[in-house]
Structure formats: structure tokens, C-alpha cells
Amino acid sequence: MSVDMDAFIREMPKAELHVHVEGTLEPDMRLQLAERNGIELPYQTADELAASYEYTDLSSFLALYFSGMDVLHTEQDFFDLTYAYLQRARAQNVVYTEMHFDPQAHTSRGIAFDAVIQGIRRAQETAQTELGIRSQLILGILRDESIESAMQTLEQSLPYKDWIVGVGLDSDEKGNPPLKFRNVFERARTEGYKLTMHCDHLQENSVEHIRQCLDTIGVDRIDHGYHVLDDEVLIEAVRQRQICLTFCTTSTPSNPAPRRAIGLKAALELGLNVTVNTDDPAYMRSYYMSDVLLNTQQAAGLTREQVAQLARNAFRSAWIGDDEREGYLAAVDGYMASAG
Ligand code: ADE
Ligand code: ZN
Q1: Nearest ligand (C-alpha, residue 277)
Q2: From 79's CA, which of 51, 70, 132, 258 has a CA 20 to 30 Å away?
Q3: Ligand 2 centroid vs 183 CA: distance in angstroms?
Q4: Which pLDDT tens digit goes with each residue over 159-192?
Q5: How far is CA 60 from CA 50, 55, 65, 176, 207, in A?
Q6: Atom 9 (ligand 1) nearest CA
Q7: DSSP E strand stretches across the chain
Q8: CA-closest residue to ligand 1 atom 8
């Protein structure tokens, strides 16, 4: 019954491994921050802004995503952005989340790296104390920027190493394969960071990009990674190594939900370590974790056990210590026992 499934999904303790904090900038906050920082936006209401979020592919999405960030200036802005996301996530029973942030998108506008990370960090600490949601940060490298800019950003992050768990690769994939950043990611590994990279849906050479991630870069995880399913060798490689794939199954114009959701079900049934995530919820119908999981469950006809498997996969792939992991997995087991 769908009502039961709705409550079952909403109340389950969940983790999120793929969300961009800048992609959680909801239209109402964008308007507030524009006013606070004296910035003119071409729209007056949150509804008008939301209606303007139309895109057909990754590059038209990215144009919206980056222009939305223009209202983020001060440490307080980054605090407000992050705290609002953590509140919304916690309200959907996300108890643990790993958030990408994109420093180059701010430092290139003259915003100090320090202001960005201090604001985010203060929000993480406040949310952990006040809301009971734990979070960690992933440094996103913009793959359509230069290798030098990537290395400089990695170096800027080093004084804050204790606040950052991993390094990711995002933005426009076209012409920017994983191998472009081989040296940067080698250095990141040496510095003790975990590694992940986006291999998005319908990108050219996606199978080759995934192969580079696995064979040359040695990633710990792949963000998206749907095209693993196109290649028997890749399926076997990620299955054997249980590399986590962070699928984002919100329906968008260029990626209708059924297609990704059905891929997700196939991946689960092949024994792959796949998870469900929100990516950029403010630009994707404001669907947060429970909303996306429920839609995915409906689109693919997932069983309760498959939904629970998705939650377990996220906790078992989180970049945390074993004790913390055991605690979360026990909470899912307890939840399943009580949910009947
Ligand atoms: N930046 C924010 N979301 C992204 C995505 N899904 N792919 C690439 N870059 C992104
Ligand atoms: Zn992403």
C-alpha cells in the first residue's frame, strides 16, 4: 500500500552521499540573500525563480546552478545556506550526509576560501548539536577549470584538512575526463583524502571515464555512474570491489525518473553497491531524500527490502569509522524489525 510505503520511507534513518550544498539554495533563500547583499535578480518571487529553472542537459543545468550562487558572499551566507539544507535533510530523517562544495565557484568571484568553509563548518557544528544530524564535506574540483586551478584549490584546502573528508570532481564532463586530473587526485590521496568523481548520465565517453576512475585514478566511489550498466567488465569490477555508485534519481526534463529508477533497480538486482541521492534539490523540484526515495520506489516498483538495502548501502559506503557505521546499520536493522 502506497500510504504505508510513504511512512516507511519517510521514517527510515537515512544517509546521503551526493549532494552539492550550493545546489540546495532554494529560491526563497536566493531572494533573501540577494536583498541582503544588494544584488538585483531578474525575478521578484520564489515562484518566478523556480519557474525559470528550466534545462535540457548538464551544461544548461550548470549555467543555472552557477548563476544561482552569485548571491552567496559572506561567511553568514554560507552558514545560512548550509544550515537550511541540514534542517531540511534532518526533517526527512537523514541522520548523516556528505556534502560537496565548490570553492572555485566562489574564489573566482573574489570570495575567500576561508569565508566559504568557515560558514559551512559553523553550520555543520550547529546542526549536529541542535538537530542531531552529522555531516562531512567533500571538496569539489571543477573539471572545466584548469589543472593549475585544481591544484591550487587542493592546496588551499590543506589547512582545513580536518574539516574535509574527500575530494570530488564535478561540473562539465564534456572534454574533461578523469585523467586530466590524475596528478591532482594523486596528491589528494597522498594528503589523506578519499576520492570520488562524477560520471554523469548521457555524457560522451562515459564508459571510458568510469574505466579511468577505476583503473587509473583509483576512486573510492563514483558519483552517478549509471553507464556502468552498459559494460559487462565494469559491472563485474564495481561488483567485486563493491564501489559505491551514488545514483541521483530525481526526475528532470533530460532524465525522466523511470529511466534512472529502473537502472537503479537493475543495479540492485545485480548486487551492485548503489545508493539514492538528491544532487541539487533546489534545482530539482525541491525533492529531498525521502521524496526522491519514494518517487524512485514508485517508478521502479522497489520492495521494502530493496529500499532498506539502499539505506544500508549508503551507511556502509559513508566515509566514517567502523563504530559509527555499526551504530547506523544497527539503527536500520532496528527500524526494519519494528516496521514489520
Ligand atoms: N555540480 C552540481 N551538480 C552537478 C552534477 N550533477 N554534475 C556535475 N556537476 C555538478
Ligand atoms: Zn552531483
Answers
A1: 2
A2: 51
A3: 22
A4: 999 999 999 999 999 999 999 999 999 999 999 9
A5: 15, 5, 9, 17, 22
A6: 171
A7: 14-20, 94-101, 134-142, 164-170, 194-199, 221-224, 244-248, 274-277
A8: 171
